[in-house]
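Contributing: when you submit paired examples, paste them exactly as shown. First protein:
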Amino acid sequence: AFVIFAACMWSVASVQIKRLDPPVDGFTLNAWIAVFATPQLALASLLIEEGQIEALRVAGFWAYFAIVYQAVAVVAVGYGAWYWLLRRYQLNQVMPAMLLIPVFGVFSGIVFLGETLTVNLVIGGLVTVAGVAIIILRRPKVTAPATERL
């Protein structure tokens, strides 16, 4: 249920961002989202989780590197590019590209984490990329306008 709710909220947010007038730069939008989200998430962590302070204390270089990577590569670059695309193209042209996120995730896991590339992953990736290409590249069918009968 939470995944469906999150997907709906993502759609609503994308529509609202598209409607911003004047348009807001993606990096500025990300910065303001972080300003408001960080205190809320920190409070939720304090109320819901246990041992997070100790985990921060004993975390090593790679744990903090992962956080910085998420902040820079994923949030700043990824969402910055997403908002840039939303400002320049119709939402229905940009949304299918979101289906490529798992493909990039699997590819990153193979390259950076040494995960195994299987036949199923290759087939799934090819089907996903082909489907997105069909959605993005297809031309809408042009039909003649209906004539009105009297």
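Second protein:
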Amino acid sequence: MTESALAAELLRQGIAAVKAGQKEEARRLLMQVVELDEHNEQGWLWLSGVVETIEDRRICLENVLTINPDNAHAQTGLAWIEQHAPAEPPAPAESEPPPVEEPASASAGAGRCPRCQAALPPAAQSCPQCGLPLLITCPACGQYADVENINCPHCGYTLGDFRQGAAYHLALAQAYQERGQRELALEALARAEAEKPDTPQLLEEIIRLYETADQPDRAIAAGERAVQIAPEEAALHARLGALYRQQGRMDQALHAFQKALALDDQNPTAMIGYARIKLEEEGATAEVMGLVEDLIEKQPTNAVGSLLLADLYLRQKRTAQARKFYEHACRLSSPDSEVGREALRKLTELQGGNAESPPKRAAIPSRAPTGARPGCLTVYAILLANSGFFALMGAIGIALMAGALQSQTAEFEALAPTSGMELTPVRLGTALWIGVALSLVSAVFSITIAIGLWRLKNWARLAVITLQSLGLLLGVLQTVMVVLSFRQMAAGVGYPGGFPIFSLVFLLAWFAVQGYILFWFIANRDIFA
């Protein structure tokens, strides 16, 4: 135990002894406090109330004012000494001004636990019945306050209400950790666990604070208790799995992740943890790729998932995609975080450069990563599927109508000899059936490409590029033919000269839209698998 921690513990015991009326014990403990830390304001202040002479009391209070000239209790004590300096005060020690102001609740219920009302033994630091600590160290000023104080009497810091149980101690633990008071934080965490919390939020907070305090064994123990208390909470199983994995307990980690995914198959912590273990054991399998791509599709700003997907692409020798996702992970994470450092290191190794100029951070990626389907692509795929569906329905309808017409014609031809009518034979030409067949092929082709785009397949992208290129070429040829036709008509009688402005604007808009679609599919190669 460090000297500061030892001084704090001795001060706690000394204050408890003062309140219990054990003056000799209090003086002994408080003397040790100021010997360990001569700048301990509270140590000198409490010691001033248990020393034997006026002169010793003066020294104690002057030391307090040297440390803190604004201490009102020391100023009051010195003023009292100046008035009674010629002689020893005739009143007993109990009537002398107390070194600190006691809360009203303490004087009203002295010797009783404020929570369970059990009788307290002399110099008790906590209730032997319910375990409630009677003194709390203020995270802000480091001074002691009664557990009943909602605000610190010394600095006004909000301590909270002890009746909140585990939440009260967890808030203190968080405050201690933020100020680097590790031992006090661990003590508060132990008290929070002793309150036997049963809500998933409090259980997960205990695990998190143990992790932050670099106490993996305690965090795992807390996690194991948590999943027993709340076995249906996927987040707790996932958190426990992550702790197991950090400690190299892979079998237990895999079991915990599987349990979490069985409860919630979209839990990101479980998905990433399970995928990492499978990647280490089996490599970049289709199962692992599908799991991580599904995660990124639903959570495109998940930095850990982006880093893992980049690792998977690198395993598959797809360096362009790997580089993109390492950059994406760098943008989404802080350069000082573990994910940010790892992503930058791997990106640097991949590029063969240095790690001094990381990619600029961005809350949202400038281009959608693989697995995250852009909205414009979704709309295009839906429109393409709809056009294919209507073409299919049209082809089927024409085929059915043609078949019905052929059947009726055959019936009329059979009746013609008996009725004396002359009926010209009607035959459906081969061209009609070829048209129906082409419509069917076009419909199936459009629907197939739409499905491929929806699933981000590269062959679908290439098909769209090919079709768009052919469409633009045919559009140019048709435009040339129309322009030539208008010029010929302009030379004839009754036709105005020139090309209609409306038609020109329409053609330019059509070419712009088709050209943009072609450019988009060429430029966004990395989106497609």
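If you have annotations for the second protein, write them as plain sentences, like these:
The CA atoms of residues 474 and 480 lie 10 Å apart.
The radius of gyration is 41 Å.
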